[in-house]
Amino acid sequence: MPLATTGELITRAAEARSAIAAFNIITLEHVEAVIAGAEAAGAPVVLQVSENAVKFRYGRLAPLARAAVAAAERADVPVALHLDHVQSDDLLRQAPGAGFSSVMYDAARLPYAENLAATRAATDWAHSQGLWIEAELGQVGGKDGSLPLDAHAPGARTDPDQGRDFVTRTGVDALAVAIGSVHAMTTRSAALDHVLLRRLSAALGVPLVLHGSSGVPDDGLVAAVADGIAKVNVGTALNVAMTSAIRTFLAAHPQAVDSRKYLSVGREAMAREVTRIIGVLTTAP
Question: Residue-wise over 50-77: b if at least 16 C-beta within 10 A, else e?
Fold first, then answer.
């Protein structure tokens, strides 16, 4: 089916007090696994390509993006493409021509006034191109050590009053909020601040996004959706599933050299995790 748009999927989810799962992709196996998992769940999904993934792919966005578009157009469920954690203005400007309907512009590392100004400029340009835009306020942490890893440090959390000012003055369509999760967690021990999340949901007036969701236990995800999260970003959980499955396979087959054998096992493990996570999100009241 034709590519869906992230804005449409998130708007519907927010209106229904539900959430869309957005999975970060790095390889073609990720693309295929996310779509297969979403199809098994019978749910729409967002494929996300981060700036770090682009750097891994020799700085080239087009090859992975074209593969994602081709796979999405053959999916049995709605699939949208989202460019994630963009700091480079050059990369931002590649999004419309590469099949992306949305972008997360990440200036959260900057002081508030600079974040606001940079995000305002990015939003103006993105909207002129028909892109839905997400930004971040607060310090989720865990991305390349560029932000504090302590999600509970003073000033790390998103402030509702500042958040309202930021959304109003930048015009962003959604906001990633810092409420206790951390990127790249391999344990599911993050404790979210649900009181703060409810305050943010009441104050901001735009869909809220949870980054670092791989480290949040299932009940925390269910509660986050009930409290106002409309987009749940997942990346590390897929890599954990893939790597664990491949390690197990290679330990049992030490002479294996055909990459299709172990990559297919990894792909299947990721697809199961996608289906499981979507199932968790749909149990939210």
Answer: bbbbbeebeeebeebbebbbebbeebeb
Integer-rounded Cα Rg, in Å, for the chain is 18
The catalytically annotated residue of 76, 84, 90, 258 is 84
User: pLDDT band at 157, cuts 50/70/90?
Assistant: confident
Give me the mean pLDDT over the 177-183 stretch.
Answer: 80
Q: Is 84 a catalytic residue?
A: yes
In angstroms, rounded to a whole number, what is the distance separating the alpha carbons of residues 248 and 235?
21
Q: What angle do CA 175, 231, 90 make, to 5 degrees?
A: 60
What distance in Å separates the CA atoms of residue 273 and residue 278, rounded to the nearest whole number? Answer: 9
The string of pLDDT tens digits covering residues 83-123 is 999 999 999 999 999 999 999 999 988 999 999 999 999 99
